[in-house]
Design a protein that fits this description.
By secondary structure, the chain is of the alpha+beta class. The protein has 12 helices and 25 strands.
Amino acid sequence: MTTARVRGIYTTAVTHLLREADLEVVQASEPIRERFDDEFEVAPAAVTVDTTRDRQGVGVSGPPEAVETIANELESVAIDAFRWESEVSDGAVFDAEVLEASGGSGAVVDLGEGRRGYLNYDDADGYVDSGDRYRVQVRESTPPWVDDRPRVVPTLEVRSGLCTLSQDRTGVSAALSGERANELVGMTDLLSTDVPDGWGLRWHHTAADADLEAMGDALAAIAERAAALESELADAPSEPDEPSQLVATETTIWLWFGRRSRFALDEARRTVETTMPGHHRTKAATRAASSAVDFAEAVRGSLAVDSSSDSNSDWHSWADPSQGADGAFPFDAVVKQFGPDSGDRIEIGHGKPDGRLISLGYGDVTDWEPDGKLTLERSMRGGGSYDALGTPKEDGDTAVTKFREGRWWYPTTYKADDGSTKGTYVNVCTPVELFPETVRYVDLYVDVIRTPDGEVEIVDEAELEAAVADDIVSTELAEKARSVAGAVERALSK
């Protein structure tokens, strides 16, 4: 059976979904054990599912077949969930060459075939200079929508969640303190598997709950993986060669969750625990929101216990049935507490179905309404013309963009400095999310324009068709995009 270790803000929902699919979650945290009121094995995990640093999605790493199984389950959560396989997966080994080593805390390295990594100076032995070559392993892969490069280190290790074998360590140690740490180190001698030569073993905090059998299984599993890694590298040159990938025994798949996906994850979580409308949408917006959401749910949960009522049902009673499960999302309260608000300056994060995130620039919030509407104004620089409209960009132009939380499209009207309109461009996209610092969505290629003379036209349909043919956009999502574009075209033509 595929086993998975899950961490981050999506843990409860993901744990529920995986268990529903007869997949086993192991090494569960204490809050998860309490929520599910069940026992979870303290056993080696084949796959790790970790929330991304920006809380926009999850990374799934492990053996390719097991990763594929779990990624398929998570991708199916809603229409606006996207997935991409990383070109630089966790645990992969490369020969790398330093490209830039001036200033900062680390160097950019060439991994071959256009791939780049980041080598922290503290991880290297001695002075790092341009042209230096290292044999490195990927310690932390990065999702395609962030600017950070994968972190690489010039040493090898294998991890299981319970323990790590590293060629940068010697002996046996534990990431704990006191008597339990001494117990873990001492119990290692009782295991049937020995620590491989040339590797050091470190037990993690999760091992504190493991019995002797689980410890033995964990050590045996990573000892086998260490041996496989050494075998794969046996034919590699003794010294780092031209930048290239040498070994990739694991796969990393990234999943980005859109607004529909976050509310679907709310529904999954709600089957297990008290969950406010927009739980994941709010937590994804800002780290500061996590404690507030947890507090609100704890209070509502305690009130439900005191009154013998179902707090989840009570929250659902707020919803507008025509809006679906997300109709009760307290946008007004969330925005007042965390932003964005009038006068703020925020970025337009234009996601692409291939995983890239393009900034369309920053604008000033000139107006917002409690029902989820926000107006953003940007000053434009002269040069060139506006996409598809053909009208020239000139200094003094203003772009007025009107967003609405949850809507599948948004319009931008370009105005000259005398107030005349240079045309309107309507972007068709996944449901918009208005986060405190960034407006976020994924562009669906097809758009609608209205020229200054009033002509309305759907554009870029061929790009959408090509994306479907390349399996970048699903057929279902493409049909939705076409439907939205058609509705917008009809509305603008009236």
